[in-house]
Amino acid sequence: MSDALINGLAGAGGGIIAQLLTYPLQTVNTRQQTDRDQKRKDQHSSTLDQMYQVVKQEGWTRLYGGLTPSLVGTAASQGVYYYFYQIFRSKAEITALERRKRGLGDGTVGMFSSLMVAALSGCVNVLLTNPIWVVVTRMQTHRKKSQQTHSISSDDQVIVEVEAPPFGTNLAIQELYEESGLWGFWKGVLPTLIMVSNPSLQFMLYETLLKKLKQKRALSKNANKGVTALEIFLLGALAKLGATVVTYPLLVVKARLQAKQVIDGDKKRQYKGTADAIMKMIRYEGITGCYRGMSTKIVQSVLAAAVLFMIKEELVNGARWLLTKDAMNRARSKAS
């Protein structure tokens, strides 16, 4: 099994576990990002209060709206990303070694090369998986409503509320296709492509911090001690925090474009594209509108990234150990 495949599968596994643990926060955050109703009472309430309101008004299942396609998307995204990341990283390492032979550099992959590797991997990931995330956004922002039926008798009219059918993956796909056609599945792709700077910054910070930690460990008395799972967790959290703060406005724009567009004559709510969304957000909501729900996102994304890094590293180490053990057993069998 290739190292790229091991990293791809480990990334998918870590991503799924992180997604399951943090999904309710992600649902609330997506609603915060796409909420443009200044009069909504719960707009400025805390994340926990908003989660409570969702449960109270729509039921527990709404906190996990879109979970199935989201898990598929997470597995696909993490698998694609780590697979191509490892391929591009290996090529960058070979290039760095060749440069050292020519007397250029120290043979290690520099910060700029790490940034480019992460960016290329992110672009491939976005182009292949964007349709999944548009559907997930639609399902997360869908608010459960009751349908009203009218029963008319000879004396009066009675209004009876009937629960609307569940808004599942098929309905979300159908609604999106009827609204925008095939191109609708790539809504928000431009800000999402720009958003590859987020994982790029994240991995650049993560690998820089990890490299410094290993160098410091090599010079200390604990030179033989490897990096622990807890240290990986903390490094992943710190790296994601820095990347999220810088790129958050693009995440809000992406969510606004991917959510169901409001067609009520109010031009403030209708976006023609990325540039139009940014201009209207700043004009009608101010700079704060670009950072709506950021505190929730920081908690969710930092926790998810930290868990992902920790689980991925453990899975990679476990897979390599099993492969090494299997190779040693085969060698012993041949020798005997």
TrEMBL record:
Residue spans of the Solcar repeats: 2-91, 109-212, 227-318
Compartments reported by the entry: Membrane
Gene Ontology cellular component terms for the protein in this record: membrane
Keyword terms: Membrane, Repeat, Transmembrane, Transmembrane helix, Transport
Superkingdom of origin: Eukaryota
Gene Ontology terms describing biological process: nucleotide transport; transmembrane transport
Transmembrane intervals: 109-128, 227-251
Membrane topology according to the record: Multi-pass membrane protein
Name of the protein in its database record: Peroxisomal nicotinamide adenine dinucleotide carrier
